[in-house]
Every structure is written in structure tokens, then in C-alpha cells.
Design goal:
globular; about 260 residues; mainly alpha; Growth Hormone, Chain: A
Length: about 260
């Protein structure tokens, strides 16, 4: 799971850089054609995956596929999923408008390096944070990643030079880049092992609502308050989410993370 999340995060942060590069150099048509080729390649790669059949004895009644809300949603994951959606709400202004913000500051080519620095820090830090998770559990790691994320947002709001702008990218990559897979792994552990797929599906569904709503709200607020105020307020909002995390999730008794250790990097 950890390697899967690492690869998907790497693609997510590299996409804005290559998208902007191809759009500026080649135009919208070739940018979309490149995206189409990547989509087809992804589908073909999926068809090449072969999983060993698992012989699991189950009652005949349980072998029937029931597409019900109860089967698709794991209630025990909902508190953590809500926290994940709120964290995603805080990340949405970065994902949606950081490139536009860099252009408004006239950073030139340095503005396109934000997600490159983000990805580089993510790739370097993930193996270490994965081992930290295995050895210590999520509590201290969530504190560290949230603090890094918040400081990065504050620096982003105050950035007047390309160096500060890229430093904020490193801190946000260290923070949010590691926080998301931590929450995702915790979501898998929040429900029964037999319902891991439902647990993950519940978390990602609610998370997607947060990232989508955040992108919409960011556009509305940015037009009214500007980039600097928006990113500074986002850092304050992140601290509120952090408090909610510990009130809703962080104070629960510590669980065994043997299942997590098999799935986290």
C-alpha cells in the first residue's frame, strides 16, 4: 500500500509540472493527447496484472455480491474520513492555484518547480516516515506532518522570492505528502480486516468530496481575499483540523498496527 500511494502521489505532483510545460510549449491539443496516451497505457498495464487465486472458504450466502450502502460504507472509518476530507480542503488551494500564484509573483521558470521540489522531498522522506509509522505509530508523525504543512502554507503566503516559494514547496511536500498515506493506512486499520476494501473506499470517497469542495471554495475566496490572505487563513484552518483530529481520532486507544506494517512503506 505504501509503495502504491508513493507512486500515485508522485504522479499527482508531477502532473501539474508536465501539464503546464506541455500546455505552454505544445498547446492544449497535445497536452490532452498525452493525457489520453497515459490513460490507455494505464489500462493496458492493469490488464497485465495477474493475482494468485486465494482459496478462502466462505458460507454460500456470503459469496453473493450485494451492492448496498451498508456493504460499500464502513461506519467505523467515517470519523477519520471526515478528518481526511478537511485536510484535503486545506490542500486544495495549493493544488488548484499555486501555479497561478507563482505567475502573479513573476517567478518565471522557478514557479513551475513547485511540484518538482514537492515530489523530490516526498520521494526522499517517504521511506523514513514509513519506518517511523511502523515503529512509533501515527500520533507523533501526524503532529510532525501537520506542523510542516502549516509552516509551508505560512511561508507560501509570505513568499516574495522564489527561494521562499520553493522552501514552502519542500515543507508542504514533507507535510501533506506524508500525511495523506498515513491517514489512508489508518483508515484501512479502522475497520475489520475482512472489510479493508470498504474501509479504503469509504475514506477515499469522503476525501474526494473534500478536495472537490476545496477547489470550488478556493476559487470563490481567492477572488475576494487574494492569494496571500487565502494561504495564511488556510494555515489557521489546518490547525483547527489538527485539533479536530485529536478530539475525534487521536485520543482513541492505540491499536496494534501489524496489518498496517504489511501495507505501509
Amino acid at each position: 500500500m505504501g509503495y502504491f500511494v508513493l507512486s500515485s502521489n508522485r504522479a499527482m505532483v508531477a502532473e501539474p509540472f508536465f501539464g503546464l510545460f506541455s500546455f505552454e510549449r505544445l498547446g492544449a491539443f497535445w497536452m490532452l493527447m498525452f493525457a489520453l496516451v497515459c490513460t490507455i497505457a494505464s489500462l493496458l498495464s492493469f490488464l497485465l496484472i495477474h493475482l494468485a487465486a486465494q482459496q478462502v472458504k466462505r458460507p454460500a450466502a456470503k459469496r453473493q455480491l450485494r451492492l448496498s450502502l451498508k456493504q460499500m460504507i464502513e461506519p467505523s472509518v467515517l470519523p477519520l474520513a471526515l478528518i481526511g476530507a478537511l485536510f484535503a480542503l486545506a490542500y486544495a488551494p495549493v493544488l488548484s492555484f499555486v501555479s497561478v500564484y507563482a505567475k502573479s509573483l513573476h517567478f518565471g521558470e522557478s514557479g513551475n518547480l513547485f511540484f518538482v521540489i514537492y515530489a523530490a522531498v516526498l520521494l526522499v522522506s517517504r521511506p523514513f516516515t514509513g519506518r517511523w509509522f511502523d515503529a512509533r505509530g501515527p500520533k507523533a508523525l501526524v503532529v510532525f506532518c501537520t506542523a510542516s504543512f502549516a509552516i509551508g502554507l505560512l511561508l507560501l503566503s509570505m513568499a516574495k522570492t522564489a527561494e521562499v516559494y520553493l522552501l514552502s514547496a519542500a515543507l508542504i511536500g514533507m507535510g501533506w505528502g506524508n500525511l495523506f498515506p498515513i491517514l489512508q493506512t489508518m483508515a484501512i486499520q479502522s475497520g475489520p480486516l475482512s472489510r479493508s476494501s470498504s474501509s479504503l473506499g469509504t475514506f477515499l470517497s469522503v476525501f474526494d468530496v473534500g478536495i472537490s469542495a476545496g477547489s470550488f471554495l478556493t476559487g470563490v475566496l481567492m477572488a475576494s481575499f487574494g492569494f496571500r490572505t487565502l494561504y495564511a487563513a488556510d494555515a489557521a484552518f489546518l490547525l483547527v483540523v489538527f485539533i479536530l483530529y485529536f478530539s475525534m481520532v487521536g485520543k482513541k486507544p492505540k491499536k496494534e498496527y501489524s496489518h498496517a506494517r504489511q501495507e505501509h512503506a
